[in-house]
Amino acid sequence: MSDAAQRRADAPTLVASAGEDASDRRVDVGVLVAHAPGTDPDRLESFAHRACGDAVAELASATDVAWRCHMEPASRLADHSRRRPSEFLDRATQRMVEGPYDLVVVVTDVALVSSRERVVPGLASPLARVAVVSTRHLRSAPRGDPRRSLDDAAVRWNAATLLVHLVGHLLGARHGDGGAMEPFDFDPDRRSVPRFDADVARDLHRVADEIPADEAEPWGRLGRLAFHAASAAGNPGRVLRALVDSRAPLLPLSLPKLSTAALAPTLVIVFSAESWDVGFHMGNATAALFAVASVLAAALYLLFSQNLSFPRKRHRVVTEHTALVNVTVFLVLVFAMVGLFALVGTVMLVIELAVFPPNLMSNWPSLEEPTVGVVDLVRTAAFISTVGVLSGALAGGLEDPAIVGHLALFARRP
Question: Which ranges does the record mark as transmembrane (predicted)?
Fold first, then answer.
């Protein structure tokens, strides 16, 4: 028996199952409970157990594939603070590889926030195949009423509905597909789990047949790199969709420390004669290559210095969806650095056009031509912004590394 199979036999507990069991047509779901200090983990585990039991029947019916939910040991959070779903991503991907599991569901009792800082009942990451459910939102009640209990019927059936809805997202379904994929709203009168529409069920059946994804035990760093590249090349649509949804070029606006570290030195450099000499005498091709190299170097530095690859604990086995997560996070960093480059370059260009006297540079003796064109100003601004990108990555970094995985992998609403 392999190490992974032995671990599954020893630690996780089978808590829910549905569908005809077939070794080549089965979805194994790992269920992780993350509870706040002072919370009874047994009650939260019982809640997760019941939610899985209510959900797997509909999932098995819609996909025509057997579903098995395995309960992992509960973990205690450090405090009661609200959290982004990406903060659970490291442990989820680690358990996914060790299980091994095809999907992972995290159940927590702390508040969960979206990328828009709104408290939500749950969020899903189709690329990472991780869903996070929060009981805090489900237990909330109208003003003046006591909070609902985990044993409340409304909480039970809304939790099961939310779980089915989020797993539908993990399998590629979207809002508006009808039935269980309608945007989730808590319904106090709900007493059953809505079904998937027939068209959606056919798509889920097709996707479920593709699970589990490919996995490999690549030899060395080059083998891992090749497996990551092959996984991305085989799933370009999924990676591109995640990049579009992440709005990566706008990421520097959410990281003021990074942006400040990039802008501060350039505001000094732009008034330096030496930087203008270099920018004016640099070729266009050289400036472009320098910009590309700086963006890639900054992205790689952030990736490794902030340890943003998943899972952070090195494992012998690498799964396809874990490789896709890592490729997407790296590409998000690349496009974020492109956005930072554009931000700094725009500021530099505005200073060149609006602050400097138009004939100041043309009187410099180091210029071979007495005229200064727009291309010269753009090239100089680009040169200065490359310095800003590197200084931002080195000096500023990411004050909140979890935000990258949050924006890159998780949807904005349930």
Answer: 250-273, 285-304, 324-357
